[in-house]
Prior knowledge:
alpha/beta; 316 residues; 11 helices
Amino acid sequence: MERPAISVLINNHNYGRFVGRAIDSALNQKAPDVETIVVDDGSSDQSRSILEAYNNRVKVLCQDNRGQAAAINAAVRVSRGDILCFLDADDWWAPGKLSATAAAFRSNPQVSLVYHRLQPTLTDGSPTLKPIPRTLCSGDLSPRLMKSAGWWPFPMTSAIAVRRSAWDAAGDMPEQFRISADAWLTGIYPFLGDVAALPYSLGFYRIHNNNWYRPIDDAAMLRKRMVHWQASVEATNRFLSAHDLPGRLRLTDHYPYRVASARLEGVAARARLKLAVDGLLFAGEPNLLRRVRDALRTARDLPRLGRDVGLSEAAK
């Protein structure tokens, strides 16, 4: 059988009400030589009956619930494409996404990862907020990541595609990434080659209670993010060590981690000033205007040490 140029890899867990739109957006792409693989990660809703309706148009794998990373790993193992494009079951793509992605890989053989912006939407699919990420980064990002503990204005999973040769070099995703597996893709692949950013919104990111991106975090989400960021730094350092790559990330360079801690605990005046200065110098945000705005806004809004920080424990 002829090897496809592109493998579309959809991971699904209990998104039966959304997964059809994700699959249709992949099948309706104009790019030739595309295979579509869906891994159902132990769904208990109507997902599997919906997937069965696609018959031979997609390859469907079903497994016990093991998390996003395990589902993506399973999809990659049975895929054959030279380009791996990831799509979460609650998101969908715009026409032309695959052809634009393939062209970006063809234009630069040194590129390991290609991404684009996503348009956030409400649960019903109506647009909200501005496309993400706001700042785009291209080229060799490894020096920047070494200074920022791996943080940059990274894309979400449904905006990411990687070259198979880079996947083979990196190996499977660690299954600790049961959610937010994009942290592995955006944290590791910049050390394996260049990154190419497409300036268009070529997909749609559906915001609802189960996902990671949200305009405002409660205390529980801040704690969850801090644990996740620390785990990501540790996983990246293990990867760098295992592949004899120079340098190691330091959690103290992770400005969002430090800000989250300050939001939970409050800060004294001197610490507030230091966070403002460090924010102005933070390597993770390349855009100067956004860096200045975010640093000053953060310093202004942080709660005072010993005061009620005013964060709810759970999102409403």
